[in-house]
Design goal:
Elements: H1 2-33, H2 36-60, H3 66-89, H4 97-101
Helix pairs in contact: 1-2, 2-3
């Protein structure tokens, strides 16, 4: 019993680590480019990561029944994957000439 709890906790910690890194990198890319697709990507990954952590935490820490915590995790995952799918279909704005050339306004 304790071995499976340790493994579950370790898996959730790794999920939080890599999900957090991916969310942060996506958010930085969005801030750099202004691309709505990258914003949606960051939100989607954040939702999937939050659901995984929230589901496990509510079960382990607050004693929420396994069925309820798994349902909550599944809802976050489903919404997150929906947002991720949306990010693939979102039109990115056409890059401006200044952004393509590396030329900044006022550098003249």
């Amino acid at each position: 019993m304790y071995g499976s709890t340790t493994l579950l906790t370790a898996a959730k910690a790794v999920t939080l680590l890599f999900g957090g890194i991916l969310t942060l990198l996506s958010l930085r890319a969005y801030r750099r480019t202004g691309s709505p697709a990258l914003r949606a990507l960051a939100v989607g990954i954040g939702l999937v990561t939050t659901g995984a952590i929230l589901g496990g935490a509510l079960h382990q820490i607050l004693g929420l029944p396994l069925e309820a915590s798994a349902t909550l995790q599944s809802v976050f995952t489903a919404i997150g994957f929906g947002v991720l799918t949306y990010s693939l279909y979102t039109e990115s704005p056409a890059p401006s000439r200044d952004r393509q050339s590396g030329h900044q306004m006022g550098d003249d």
